């Protein structure tokens, strides 16, 4: 078996969306060569699936992803539903029928009732909330049905006994465990995940998994229990379990062939728990990971915060991919006259109503004639008329004659070539021309844009060049998105407006004008939401006001995990947070989340960090919300005018500018130095990996212009 570079363990849950990180929400942990990362909490299945797609789409290396759900049902049931024994077909079947929205609401009980109707007997699905009276879904366990209560793998777990306890049946939808509900919602999510990953992913034990870059498998999280308490870090048991399972499998792969095919023939139709038979190797590896915190002893019980960088922090590309997956265009399209649509984003392409140019015309001032063939000079009788732009020559030009023609004039009938004024010599009624190539100095009809062809793609902002083209091809009305309203809110008790007599404990609110200006430059309507103090209620009120008026909110300050970091606390408790510890400098802390459904970018308070994070994350995301394609800054390589050494695990954006063809960087890195922002004209982007850069080595330079400035 090819080694895995990382193992990701997922504690799936079937609850209807919960914002507080507790049990019964989704927990995910990742282990890699450097150890096991912090457990992440996801309030909804949707957010977790998006994160997984993002993590697995752009990751390098081979990854094993394990879920504590059943990948199938007892043999025979899938066939009765889809006609096939293939659980992967069942996943797609469920995905097509289960609605499970971003808010966490789903109709799994209704689907189970429909399934019961398709399957023989009263069940097999049972269990529902007391208030839900759903005909076709018994509240209590049904015995003696057509399908067994257990799959082969559960029989193996029960036979093994041990500390893992008794598994639940996939037919049980509600009450403690609710494995059936988890399985239904997971099948839909797994189907989505497989579709997103395409051929990169194999599902164990149904598919050949020995080489695939991503392998999906099911686990029994209780197998991680002997080590979980040591890895819980103050979180719920689920957080300890996913960390222990990820670390345990990561280590156990050195000892055993985790992907060996199960002996039980039912496994291919039902699925099988990965790790059965390897429990002691998993336990040993998980315990070793628990004991290997780098600052063991000094920060007891808090080893989450003493992990190698890059493990517990989200890489920039992963955060960007997750953001990209979650930001779609908002706002209902409207039709506008082109003259009123400047700066708007197209919902539909602009198709040329007529060709540009509409007819063949002269590209220069000179003489038009039909080319007689041959080279050198030739004399032509002069036609008495003249063709000019907007004043076509009626009647045409007889073969052998030449006519005065001006730039932009439609070619008269009988003319196929234009000779430059400078190459002509008029003598009385004749003109002597130095013959150019046949067809020279002529613009063909439609050579720019043919009639009926797409002139501008959907998603294009109607900037100056786009307006020119739309007009040239005769677009009268266009379908566009409304202008995106971007709120900007500063937070912090210390903030004040600049005033000559301000005391030194006041910080002038530099971020607000900066962020308002950025939002405006990117083509959005910048909405000034003012300042909020470090007070939970005031902040909530400001955020509510912003969410009511805006399509997205940029806040700055209060985004870390400190006692004064109210925005962070508020978002965790009452909003939803998608990503918030991003492996980038400057940058941390950064919140990407939603408040009352409105996307929120909780930028750091530091102006340099706020600016950098706004350019890297907010700009493409706001563009996507506005209906534009995802914008990636166009950088290029130049020699460095500096030397630098950095460790692996974090991307760095250095304030930089080009001088003499080399990138120089601002002398001090301290992100409090606002002067460095005004000094810089772009960033040097240093990669996530370790680097020992010498002067003259190539570095990637990103001019601020490539971020739309
Ligand atoms: P915070 O993220 O709230 O801990 O703030 C980090 C640093 O940035 C502190 O020194 C704050 O005073 C400063 N800061 C926060 N917001 C702003 C702002 N709007 N303008 C300038 N500095 C700020
Ligand atoms: Mg603050």
Structure characterization notes:
With 709 residues, the chain is α/β, with parallel strands linked by helices. It folds into six domains: 169 residues, no CATH class; 113 residues, no CATH class; 48 residues, Molybdopterin biosynthesis moea protein, domain 2 (Alpha-Beta Complex); 83 residues, Molybdopterin biosynthesis moea protein, domain 3 (Molybdopterin biosynthesis moeA protein, domain 3, Beta Complex); 129 residues, 3-Layer(aba) Sandwich (Molybdenum Cofactor Biosythetic Enzyme, Chain A), CATH 3.40.980; 72 residues, Beta Barrel (Beta-clip). It is built from 17 helices and 36 strands. The strands form nine sheets. Strands 1, 2, 3, 4, 5, 6 and 7 form a seven-stranded mixed sheet that branches. A hairpin with a 2-residue loop joins strand 16 and strand 17. The site of adenosine monophosphate has 18 residues, from helix 13. Adenosine monophosphate binds next to helix 13. Keywords: Magnesium, Metal-binding, Molybdenum, Molybdenum cofactor biosynthesis, Transferase.
